[in-house]
Amino acid sequence: MKGWMGKSKVFFLISAMALLMAGCGRENLTALDPKGYGADRAMDLILLTTFIMIGVFIIVMAIYVITLVRFRKKKGQEDYIPEQVEGNHKLEVIWTVIPIILVLVIAVPTVLGTFDLADDSNADEHVNIEVTGNQYWWHFNYAGEEVVTSQDLYIPTGERVYLNMLSSDVTHSFWIPSISGKMDVNPENVNTMYIEAHEEGVYWGKCAELCGPSHSLMDFKVIAVSPEEYEQWVADMQSVDPEEVPEDSVAQEGQELFEANNCMNCHAIGSSPAAIGPNLTNFGDRSTIAGILEPTKEHLVEWLTDPESVKPGNKMTDQYPALSEDEAESIAEYLLQLQPSEITPESAGN
Amino acid sequence: MSVNSAHKSGFGATLWDWLTTVDHKKIGILYLAAGAFFFLLGGLEALIIRIQLISPQNDFISAGLYNEMITMHGTTMIFFAATPLLFGLMNYIMPLQIGARDVAFPFLNSLGFWLFFFGGIMLNLSWFTGAPDAGWTNYAPLSLQSPGHGVDFYVMGLQLSGAGTLMSGINFIVTIVLMRAPGMTYMRMPLFTWTTFVTSILVLFAFPALTVGLFLMMFDRMFGTAFFDVALGGNSIIWQHLFWIFGHPEVYILILPAFGVFSEILPTFSKKRLFGYTAMVFATFLIAFLGFMVWAHHMFTVGLGPVANSIFAVATMAIAVPTGIKIFNWLFTLWGGSITINSAMLWTLAFIPSFTIGGMTGVMLASSVADYQYHDSYFVVGHFHYVIVGGVVFALLAAMHYWWPKMFGRYLHEGMGKLAFWTFFIGFHLTFFIQHFLGLMGMPRRYWVFLEDQGLDAGNLISTIGAFFMTFGVLVFVINIFYTWKKGEKAPGDAWGTGRTLEWATASPPIHFNFKQMPLVRGLDPLWIEKMEGNNKMTPAEPMDEIHMPNGSILPLIMTIGFFIASYGFIYQVDHKAWLIAVYVGMAIGMGCMLIRSLRDDHGYHISKEEVEREGD
């Protein structure tokens, strides 16, 4: 018995568990390696509850194993009738009171943390961003800054950023595991949460609520840069002239095609907040195309010619005349040169 | 299979017998057979899901079909596999355990079965025209926006079967309150009967919430109302509340009878009475009550605010206390016993650690702060499969091995039972343990694909391998059933020799009126008491006399077919008003059957004293 559940085994079990939990998953996606305030608070409780639970499990298993070894029917015991025990008042009280205490130990930090993470009393003093969930992309409008973007969310490190979130269609859920827990994005009411990243980095965000065929492809990125870089990025975004004609002749052609194909009906370049489709102001700086593809020209051409093959059920498919390979390449050239800022995902170490 | 069909013969007569039966035992078997069929369908859907997720960016099935798979897997498993399989057991075993000849309303029992069955058929017919794809929770507004008729099939299929479940629940309550054998006080009822009783109360309160939700959804989708349509002033969160006010108790509707099963098996195979019987009954009530109070823990991330989240978090954690009481009482039932380990016991013993893990991750989820990370991730998928598979499915398989000789007069093959157990058990932990970590590593649930280079490959591969092990285990169990049917070893009335409750006091399988004479119950575990006093059988509570039994009826089936036709009409009248004819015809058939049932006197029949004496038991 000692050999199986002895001290060394228990120690090994716990350390293996800790190792597994510390080093698991991709560092800018996993919740097990928190890099932001909300993720820290969650991790505190994940660890507290995990250790309590492992303790309880060990006790249950100890009784279980001892019982099964000691009280299995042995040969020649076929007619043996064990004593018919009714119960034991003392034991019942013990295994009622101890769980109540354990639950209280978990309940107190849970309630404190719940109120802490819902506190938006200081929202006015910080960056506020309107987040809109759409099938299957994210829209970000920096309140009072005249900066609008989509898919890549820039935030300053070490500061709380308040997100006011609303959906334009169905329920989505906004989740950046390594920085913070998730919050649903409903069509009927604005939900508020705050995020705070401790260090620079490109953190991967997910939609967590089933929202249609491309639910699993509704990714976004949170790009945390130093406060100075953030200020610079905002200034760069504000100085964009949506009418500016690109220098390159292919890109110029792309710009004309972009306008001729009515792309502007849905997409905006510059700070126009209203849009059916993603705002493209800093498209050339994006870390991905459509949230999931490497930002190369080939991928953009693929996306422009057949969006359905990349994101099933998206709302761009069939909204514009079919593009020839050349046309798609010109538009791609135009879009990829939309690089208003030196502050890009690379600045955050991507 | 049972004695009374012996006097008829031929396939047609047998079929007619099963279509018209009001015998709780045959209805129990019908539930088990139909539930098993849907279980295999749901399992196949699960396997397809796991094959799709075997590697990153796999294209085994399309995104749309994947969403249909997850929706149908969840819906099928909860409503058409787990619930009816448990209802089958309750139907068969509970009346025997309380010494009754049948349930209180045999006609209603039959109607309940056919409504459930046709509801399931209706839902699965949607595969031919486009299945529902908004998840088994069918959240608005996604479900309102879903094109085609998939969600309509979901709404009508669940409405039909929900009505069946509700009436069965009421039937069980009345049966337990009114039809217990002489001497069987409430505190002498076996735990499985207790959990059937408490479960039925849960059904009585939970299913109306679902019915209301489905009606509102039906009107929104088919008749142009806007209860959930935000653009027209509705509110989609109301669906979530209604769904979970039903949906959370539903978890306990599944797990409490499972607890009942284990509370029967453990005493039988450790030769000891259940430790802390009173505490077990009390804990069952407490779990049921708390189960109703905590639905919003499914909605921590909806934005209900910190006050609501805190209240629901603490209330949820409280459930751990009565559940813990149960776990320790089971352990101490084993303690000091003389434990026999066979297939039924293997599933029971495997349940204890598996469910402990599921329960503990439940407490972890209840901590709302941490839930902001777990919610809608694979952690949740891992958690509820530990509860539903590690609890309910293990209980069903344990119960099958335990009560199979009672129901069919033959023992399931032990060797195959053990092979099925070990492969399924290993597969189960391979599949679902890793999913807790996948969730925390950033994998949300209901993901059609996961992208490359996100650190999720290995976990998903292991999970899929586990699913194949589970499939193998299920197939072995199915083979076992066919083998046993042909060649299984015959079982006596007290099949295990250590039976304690009344179902073991009658023949295997029981005569169709269950007991020749009502047994006299002199305490908890009445058969055990008699055996300890050297009696071979129960002391009768009444003299041998003629027995009154209800007549079979085809009306429940025809009535259900009527409502089934009407449901089709409701779905398709959106496309063409001519389908309203189906609504009227179907409703007329259903209502007509009700009218016949109301106006025609059917007093049943009597089995003569001589015939009762002739029947062996």
UniProtKB/TrEMBL annotation, chain A:
Cofactor(s) this protein cannot do without: Cu cation
One function term, GO molecular function aspect: copper ion binding
Leading EC class: translocase
Reactions it catalyzes: 4 Fe(II)-[cytochrome c] + O2 + 8 H(+)(in) = 4 Fe(III)-[cytochrome c] + 2 H2O + 4 H(+)(out)
Membrane topology: Multi-pass membrane protein
One GO BP: ATP synthesis coupled electron transport
InterPro entries per record: CcO_II, CcO_II-like_C, Copper_CuA, Cupredoxin, CuRO_CcO_Caa3_II, Cyt_c-like_dom, Cyt_c-like_dom_sf, Cyt_c_oxidase_su2
Cofactor note: Binds a copper A center.
Keyword Protein biosynthesis included in the entry's annotation: no
Function of the protein: Subunits I and II form the functional core of the enzyme complex. Electrons originating in cytochrome c are transferred via heme a and Cu(A) to the binuclear center formed by heme a3 and Cu(B).
Protein name (database record): Cytochrome c oxidase subunit 2
Organism, as annotated: Oceanobacillus iheyensis (strain DSM 14371 / CIP 107618 / JCM 11309 / KCTC 3954 / HTE831)
TrEMBL record, chain B:
Domain of life the protein comes from: Bacteria
Domain Cytochrome oxidase subunit I profile: 10-522
Principal place of residence: membrane
Reactions catalysed according to its record: 4 Fe(II)-[cytochrome c] + O2 + 8 H(+)(in) = 4 Fe(III)-[cytochrome c] + 2 H2O + 4 H(+)(out)
GO CC aspect terms: plasma membrane
An example molecular function term from Gene Ontology annotations: heme binding
Top-level EC class as recorded in UniProt: translocase
Subcellular location: Cell membrane
Pathway in which this enzyme or protein is active: Energy metabolism; oxidative phosphorylation
A Gene Ontology biological process term: electron transport coupled proton transport
Membrane topology according to the record: Multi-pass membrane protein
Annotated EC: 7.1.1.9
Keywords on record: Cell membrane, Copper, Electron transport, Heme, Iron, Membrane, Metal-binding, Oxidoreductase, Respiratory chain, Translocase, Transmembrane, Transmembrane helix, Transport
Record-linked CDD domains: Ubiquinol_Oxidase_I
Ranges annotated as spanning the membrane: 29-49, 69-93, 105-128, 153-179, 191-218, 238-262, 274-295, 307-332, 344-366, 378-399, 419-441, 461-483, 554-572, 578-599
NCBIfam families named among the record's database cross-references: CtaD_CoxA (TIGR02891)
Protein's job: Cytochrome c oxidase is the component of the respiratory chain that catalyzes the reduction of oxygen to water. Subunits 1-3 form the functional core of the enzyme complex. CO I is the catalytic subunit of the enzyme. Electrons originating in cytochrome c are transferred via the copper A center of subunit 2 and heme A of subunit 1 to the bimetallic center formed by heme A3 and copper B.
Family: Belongs to the heme-copper respiratory oxidase family.
Name by which UniProt lists this protein: Cytochrome c oxidase subunit 1
Native source organism of the sequence: Oceanobacillus iheyensis (strain DSM 14371 / CIP 107618 / JCM 11309 / KCTC 3954 / HTE831)
GN (gene name): ctaD
